[in-house]
What we know:
By secondary structure, the chain is an alpha/beta fold. Helix content is 34%, strand content 26%. It contains six helices and eight strands. The chain has helices at 3-13, 29-39, 54-64, 77-86, 121-129, 164-179; strands at residues 19-23, 43-48, 70-73, 91-96, 107-111, 114-118, 133-142, 145-154. β5 and β6 form a beta hairpin. The longest helix has 16 residues, at 164-179. It is globular and about 45 Å long.
Amino acid sequence: MDEQAQRNFQYFFDKNQTVVGVMGHCGNWEWGAISHQVYFSRMITGVYHPLSNKNFDDFMLKLRGRFGGDIVAMNHLLKRLISLKQQNISTTIGLIADQTAPPESAFWTTFLNQDTAIFNGPEKLAKKFNYPVIFLSVKKIKRGYYQIDTRIISETPAIHPEGELSELHVRELEKNIREQPFNWLWSHRRWKHKKPVNM
């Protein structure tokens, strides 16, 4: 993580603010979450979808939380954030937002020249709690070496019109992919849904 990336996080940590960290499946994204615990004493709340295989799910939870990360299933996230807020504990909410979203509830935009359904969870969370949003881009430097860069998307999400925050972080992801197309996980059926005709 470069110095500017660290400063972007520290700026909010110094004010005891929770931040929404958004990234895509670029480079070693698992390492990206773990590196947060190496560089900062501040907690990271990693959000995940439970796996159907219980043994493998338990293994992945141990792996992802071995440096002290707070790993939370998506359906328990809101309850956890409310509890942390009541305790005045700030965290970085780690979200990977480039998976295929259900078409009926998604934010639709043009992404890599195609109509694409985008998860609007990061935007909804940020606006609900007015938590700042940081985009993290992961770049491969050489074999086994990655660099995380960050960009502050918004310090005051509540003032943005609907869809704007989603559009902003999608443009950052697109830029990340175009710089290193080999670095993105192309195999996760990103465009399996068609945009509904009434949208």
